[in-house]
Structures are given as structure tokens and as C-alpha cells.
């Protein structure tokens, strides 16, 4: 659920280029942008009809800017994403119109105190009275009553979404626990190793002499590596002599899952204690030396450790399922035309 939907009316100043009045008030909070700074061109051209109610390109642009709020700074939408952004925005403004019409069908109302509070909150988004008057003139045709209706419309949409989606999407601790118990693999942390390396790589199609040279350098580095006493000493050696990409980071591979390591490296690491340096490890024609920093056995994350994030995740999924279900239900009873 987008928060404080009435504040989205501010977006009107960002897209008001011809002074006409928009037919649809969007949801979500968006910063005001002066009309002269807008890179967009809108003409209030109809883009959809929902049971006869017309939605325009101005409504569509508002929602597109909700999806990609950086369009104003970038002088438009990314070309490779514009079509998908437009399609997503079109489906959302149609959905919001369906929800608004459902609110009217249910004869829902907005309490006077809530309406007064929302109007005051909306006005506070403007830096001055003159700025608010400019908004009314450009986006609402000078009609404060029309602005109030747009606020009321957004609050009615909120009411339906709260009762039909938000309130029903709550996930209890018991439900989260049941999911945790039914999906143990999701919470299993695999065995992993944290280590550093010094590696020597032969050139492509290396000759016999080149292969011997790689082995000579690796053997010499092994003697130096065995003398190191700390992470820093081994890391400095890696920076000085190693030929792999990790040399720029003191040879540090950070944490790597066991399944993602060559079997030769796993065999060596499994026989080591933290702080120990391996012998030469040959992988095809390359040689590496590793220093074990830490070994983490496979372990299942506890429910206590994951319950907060899991509840949030499950609630978001449930919210979206309910929202999609409401959308399908309302569309099944409506006439929707994309123009």
C-alpha cells in the first residue's frame, strides 16, 4: 500500500504543461517539480476507459513517475525500460479506478475530521501559499473543490485497499513458523570457507619451459608463504607475487561456499586449521597456495533469527496475492478499454 496517497497530487505540477485539468488523482508521495522544468509532453489524451470513466496520458505519466521517480532528473525514462514502465503504470491506474468505483458502489464516505486533516497535510507540502495557488491554477483549473475531490478519491481508494487487502494480509507468528518448518532448505546455510590465495597461472598453450617456470615461482612463493604469521603478511605476499585477480585485495576471497570451490582446494582446506597455510595445490596447469581464515560448517538458521524478516516477506507476498485477486474480481465485473 502506498503511503499517504493524497500527497501524490503534488505531482500535477511536474506534468502540467498545458493548463488542463487531470481526470485522475494518483497515489504515492512525489516531490513537486516546476512546470517549466518538465521534460514530458502530455495532452490529456485518453489512454483507457473504465466503465466509461476516462483515464488520460496525464494520469499515466503520474503513475510512471511513481515507478521511476528519477525520470525528471534524467530527462525521461530509460528507453529499454519505458515500455514495461508504461504497461505497469497503465494497469495500476486502471486498478485504482476500479477500486474507486467499488468504494462508491459500497457507498463509503470519508469522515470530516479525516478529510480536514488530509487537506491540511496536503497543503503543508507546498512551500508557500502562492505555490499552492499556482498548483490549483495549473492542475485544478483554479478549483479548490476539485482538489478536495481528488483527496477524497484517494482516501476512498485507501479504505477499500485497507479492508480488502492490507488488513487481510497480516501474517501471524504461527504462520511464519509453519512456513519455516515446511521449507527447511531455505534456511540452511551451506558449509563455507574464508581464505586467501597466492596463485600462479601459465600462459595459454604454455610450453614445457613455461610450465616449469610457473612451478618454480610457485615453489619459491610457498617457502615465503609458510613463513607468514598473519593475515596481513600473507596478504602482502599475495599482492606482491600472486597472478590471480584476488591479489589486489590481499588475496582475500572472503566467504565462499564449499560447493563453489574446486575439489583440490576443498580437500586442502578441510585438513587445515584457521591460520594455517597449505602446500602447493595443483589445478590443471596452475598452482595455488591458500591460507585458511575461517571455516563455517553447514547450519540451519534458527527461527528466532529469521522470524522478523520472514514475517515481512510473507506479508508482502500475501498482500500482493490479495491485491491481484481484488483486481481480477473487479475487472471481471467491469468494462475496461485500453485506447
**CATH C-level of the largest domain:** Mainly Alpha
| Percent strand | 5-15%
Strand order of the main beta sheet, please? Answer: 5-4-7-6
Distance between the termini: 27 Å
Shape descriptor reads elongated
Which radius of gyration do the C-alpha atoms yield? 31 Å
Q: Return the string of H and E elements.
A: HEEHHHHHHEEHHEHEEEHE
How many structural domains can be distinguished in the coordinates? 2
Describe this structure in words.
The chain is α+β, with helices and mostly antiparallel strands and 339 residues long. It has two domains: 5-169 and 325-338, Triger factor/SurA peptide-binding fold (Orthogonal Bundle); 191-297, Chitinase A, domain 3. 49% of the residues lie in helices and 13% in strands. The chain is built from eleven helices and nine strands. It has helices at residues 12-15, 57-67, 79-105, 112-123, 129-139, 144-166, 173-182, 208-227, 231-241, 263-270, 303-332; strands spanning 46-50, 53-56, 188-189, 192-200, 252-257, 281-283, 286-296, 299-300, 336-338. α3 (79-105) crosses α6 (144-166) and α6 (144-166) packs across α11 (303-332). It is elongated and about 85 Å long. The chain starts with 11 loop residues before the first helix and ends with a strand.
Amino acid at each position: 500500500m502506498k503511503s499517504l496517497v493524497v500527497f501524490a497530487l503534488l505531482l500535477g505540477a511536474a506534468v502540467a504543461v498545458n493548463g488542463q485539468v487531470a481526470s485522475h488523482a494518483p497515489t504515492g508521495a512525489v516531490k513537486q517539480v516546476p512546470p517549466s522544468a518538465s521534460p514530458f509532453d502530455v495532452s490529456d489524451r485518453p489512454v483507457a476507459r473504465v466503465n466509461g470513466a476516462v483515464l488520460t496520458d496525464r494520469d499515466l505519466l503520474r503513475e510512471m513517475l511513481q515507478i521511476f521517480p528519477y525520470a525528471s532528473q534524467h530527462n525521461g525514462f530509460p528507453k529499454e525500460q519505458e515500455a514495461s514502465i508504461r504497461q505497469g503504470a497503465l494497469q495500476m491506474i486502471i486498478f485504482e479506478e476500479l477500486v474507486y468505483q467499488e468504494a462508491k458502489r459500497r457507498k463509503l464516505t470519508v469522515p470530516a475530521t479525516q478529510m480536514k486533516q488530509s487537506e491540511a497535510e496536503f497543503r503543508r507540502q507546498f512551500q508557500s501559499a502562492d505555490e499552492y495557488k499556482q498548483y490549483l491554477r495549473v492542475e485544478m483549473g483554479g478549483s479548490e473543490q476539485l482538489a478536495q475531490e481528488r483527496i477524497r478519491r484517494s482516501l476512498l481508494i485507501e479504505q477499500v485497499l485497507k479492508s480488502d487487502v492490507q488488513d487481510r494480509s497480516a501474517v501471524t507468528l504461527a504462520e511464519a513458523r509453519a512456513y519455516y518448518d515446511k521449507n527447511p532448505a531455505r534456511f540452511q546455510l551451506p558449509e563455507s570457507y574464508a581464505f586467501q590465495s597466492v596463485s600462479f597461472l601459465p600462459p595459454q598453450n604454455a610450453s614445457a619451459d613455461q610450465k616449469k617456470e610457473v612451478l618454480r615461482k610457485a615453489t619459491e612463493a610457498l617457502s615465503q608463504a609458510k613463513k607468514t604469521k598473519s593475515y596481513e603478511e600473507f596478504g602482502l605476499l599475495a599482492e606482491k607475487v600472486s597472478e590471480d585477480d584476488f591479489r589486489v585485495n590481499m588475496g582475500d576471497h572472503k566467504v565462499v561456499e564449499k560447493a563453489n570451490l574446486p575439489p583440490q582446494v576443498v580437500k586442502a582446506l578441510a585438513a587445515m586449521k584457521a591460520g594455517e597455510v597449505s602446500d602447493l595445490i595443483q589445478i590443471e596447469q596452475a598452482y595455488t597456495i591458500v591460507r585458511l581464515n575461517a571455516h563455517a560448517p553447514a547450519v540451519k538458521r534458527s527461527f528466532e533469527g529469521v522470524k522478523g524478516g520472514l514475517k515481512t516477506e510473507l506479508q508482502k507476498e500475501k498482500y500482493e496475492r490479495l491485491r491481484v485477486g481484488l483486481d481480477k474480481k473487479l475487472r471481471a465485473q467491469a468494462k475496461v478499454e485500453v485506447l
